[in-house]
TrEMBL record:
Keyword annotations of the record: Cytoplasm, Gluconeogenesis, Glycolysis, Isomerase
This protein's name: Triosephosphate isomerase
GO cellular component, one term: cytosol
Pathway: Carbohydrate biosynthesis; gluconeogenesis; Carbohydrate degradation; glycolysis; D-glyceraldehyde 3-phosphate from glycerone phosphate: step 1/1
Amino acid sequence: MAIIASNFKTNHTRQTTKEFIQTVNKHLEENSILSEVYIFPTSTSLDNFNTVSNLTVGAQNAYATNKGSFTGEIGTLQLDEFNIKTILIGHSERRHILGETQEQVAQKFNFYKELGYKIIYCIGEPLEVKEQGLEKTLEYIYEQFVGIDTNYENLILAYEPVWAIGTGVTATNDDIVNVHSAIKEKISKPLLYGGSVKVNNVKEICSLNGVDGALIGTASWIKEDFIEIIENTKDI
């Protein structure tokens, strides 16, 4: 079964998130769809959602703490209130825009690993690295595994070439297969692709060798589109 994940980033409100999750949940339930589906709302929209077992709501980010003096952050105290046990770690926007270092990413990973969280761990290269060829690309990606336990049982990987996120530029099928197959040779974990995935290309991408699903941003924010994405990949 394909794994399909929606990252809301800084989009949706508490009310529209609730409507979105309820609509998607109803569709999964009524159509007996078994795909693994994840939704990552903003932290202000987290709540106790009643969902089928294959629909999981997770956190886009949290600090490596239970509680404390970390202005603007949330910790497990806040996540526990809503029984959140799934988190995105290492997303390129946190690395490149917000300046999270590999050391900080690994610290966060290990904190949430110790608590048994399902972790979707993001990796990917910027355009200047991609232009240097596959060998340099893989070298760059493998550096993002420093300090990361790739044998962790609750780990899902997501390969997101930074140059393809929100740009409308999708990696070619060869680009995706080359990177995915190389990672799969080293690490035997589910591996999602992310980067300008859309309703009309998600089936083709998820059918590629070594691709176990998709982590989707922009194209997943309209509930009807996200349901169509789930429909397009439910039999893969």
